[in-house]
Amino acid sequence: MKTQHACFIIFLILLFSACSSERNTFTNRVYHNTTSRYNAYYLSNEKIIELENIIQKTHKEDFSQILPVFYPIDSATIDQNKELLKEARELSSKAIDWHRISKWVDDNYFLIGMIDYYQADTDDAINTFKYINVNSKDKDLRHRSLIQLMRIFIDQKSYDDVIFVIDYLSKESKINKENRYQLFKTLAYYYHTKDDVEGKIGALDKALGYSKDKKDKSRINFILAQLYQREGLDALAYSYYQEALKGNPPYERSFFAQLYAQKVAELDKTKDIKKVRNYYDDLYSDSKNKDLRDVVLYEKALFELKQEEREDAVKLLIRAAKEEGSNPIQKGYIYQKLAELSIEPNKDYRAAKYYYDSALIHFRPIDPSFAEIESKKGILDDYVMHYETITKSDSLIKLSKLSIEEQELIADNFIKSEEERLLKEAAAKEKPKNSGIFDNLLAFGGRSSGENFYFDNTVAMQQGSIDFFRNWGNRPLQDNWRRSTQGFSSSASNVIEESNVNPEIDESKENLFEQIPSRESLISKIPKSEEDVSKLNAALEISYFELGKLLFFDFKEPEFSIENLENLITSYPNTVKKPEAYYILYLAQKERDGNFQLYSQRLNREFPDSPYTFSVNNPGGASGNLAYMQSSNGYKKAYELYNARDYSQARKILRSTLEEYPLTRNTDKLLLLDVMISGKLDDRERYKARLESYIQSTENLELSNLARNMLVALTGEKPEQDKIEEAKKEEEVASTEDKVEEEKIEEESPYKENPNQTHIFVIVLEPEKSKDAKNLLGELEGFHSANFSSLRLRTGNMTLNKENAIYIVSPFNNAEKAMEYRSKFLNDFQSTSLSDTDKSKSLLISIENFQELNKRKNLEEYRIFYKEKYK
């Protein structure tokens, strides 16, 4: 017993002495190595591996583009899992503090470097990996740290540092297989950022030789197949696509590997068109591809385009857009292709704009197509804004000139045409039903289900709804049991109450009413006063000019440009944009070999002092930076002569400068100085006329104000325009506090108010609620089908940040349409997934602001702007 007791005491002494983090004894080292490795390091590493698996799972692959070598790190995913990284950091930090003599200290430092990397604390990560490289005795860990360091330098595009690390590692011996695998993958990433396809292929090919994981091999094979396909090496691409099918890849990647393998091997080469179409049809029919039907239709559309079957391709793309699909990015490509086909050859820029709007909703800012579409969309947005202003304003002005009876007749005809359209849509949706025994019996009795039975006939139901609405208006459904308490006014409700056995029918009736505008609502939009008409004319004048300008310079459409600018000059002969309009017409007619001399003559006759006149008279005049510098010298010389009172010589130099460099950034300054010289050499009326003309035509506010002051000094009276502006300012003083507050909001907010831009409706849910809202998208689709079938609305969902998941309904032409939808949604949309509070938190956002919100991820910041602007 004494011996056992003594042994136990010795054991305790050894155990407690081993707990010391300072004493470097054998027992101490064994204890700290074991505890550090199998407790702190193991658990910390597992949490980092868990995060990497989450990054992989949440990433949506874009198979239309070459897959990235490394899965992209989404900041939202990191934010959602910051607790995981916090726990990993605590474990590794404790391992370093408590087990300082352990040989796993450097490994824990490496994990802390990785945590800093994922949290975008790159400076700390770089310092940690550099520290390990300099101080660690573990060669493999040093190599691993250098490879990770190289990846950070590639992210930062610090290519000199990358080259230094590559050179350093190339001289290192005995790099283990795992590190070689990571090294060649990182090299492939480096070659990708440098657009070196050969280097990328070579690095990935070498990485394959060191890969142990079958799934990793499958993905690398897929990337290599894509690269070879882009290079036109179809045989190699086919071989690698076949290899990519090994290793039990995810079904989606397997589907694309098979599809692309067929394309490079047969689909793009065969002349048996029927066989190819059948292949796509079989893919579409396969139940396993239910979530990929949009992809199948998209690929089939591309095939039809190669056969020059453009109409069939467009129909397939429209079908593809309606398919639910599993990857939002694919919808982006579908809408992008529809936009491109709208532009060429149809020149339907309006449709293209709305298709691009839809495409942007489905692309992320990091996607290659996002920037490409954004660059195209600016001029399309301007085009549609001016096109729709012209269409709407012109129609309303014409209607305002008619009598009330004529306006009512036009409104009635419009309502009738809408009714006919709805009936046609109902007829198109009506599907023949399968004939069964009961149908045969009904048919024998003259009541077949598809023709005479009211509740089976959509067209009859639509017609009945329209007739009821025409006679009784849009009346609410209500309980009508206690008829005695309601009186005569409720008698018309009896019909509805008695048919209330079928709530679906009632809902369709009510929805139909809202699709048909009333005569009163149509007539209320027609301007009544001269002031209203003047506002529409002012908008029309601007839009005719801007559209003509866009069509010539941006869309290269001289014919359409001429049409709009001629309308401007004919309808608004006194427009201040007339000189520039003449100049664009001159250029457009010249381009199409038309009568450009006509506009040259008009410029010389009506606007002899205009810079556009100087330009047409001197077609060889220089432009660009050199012209700007030379015209600056001319202005300086002329101004010096003006100050020296040598007005004639100053005018001579000015005129020669304007003739040689007619359109530069100095043009407005040169013209104002010419006007000032006119005040010294010409008569008073000529000087006054030139000042007034300059004030109207210049867009430089500072120079315009200077000219106004000159006019006031000459006449002693302020110009009429100034008086109007002063009156406006006096009105604004009354609401100074509101104005200041609005300006403050505008200054602080990154969002812009643009009610005419395409809008999106957004439902916001917490992530937990979103998980339970599995049926929400389907319920929204049903709501749209019943209420907004003519709008072709689309739905989707995404994670905005860790606090919010959002459901999107789009597109709406403008804020007004989106607000109408929200009102209907709040009143009529019913779902077990949404509480009234959730519904009330829904909001509207323009497409431009949605892109900003998607970058900033701060929903509350947008709500402040939303509450102010969408009252």
TrEMBL record:
<protein>
    <submittedName>
        <fullName>Gliding motility protein</fullName>
    </submittedName>
</protein>
<feature type="region of interest" description="Disordered">
    <location>
        <begin position="722"/>
        <end position="752"/>
    </location>
</feature>
<feature type="signal peptide">
    <location>
        <begin position="1"/>
        <end position="21"/>
    </location>
</feature>
<dbReference type="InterPro" id="IPR011990">
    <property type="entry name" value="TPR-like_helical_dom_sf"/>
</dbReference>
<keyword id="KW-0732">Signal</keyword>
<feature type="compositionally biased region" description="Basic and acidic residues">
    <location>
        <begin position="722"/>
        <end position="751"/>
    </location>
</feature>
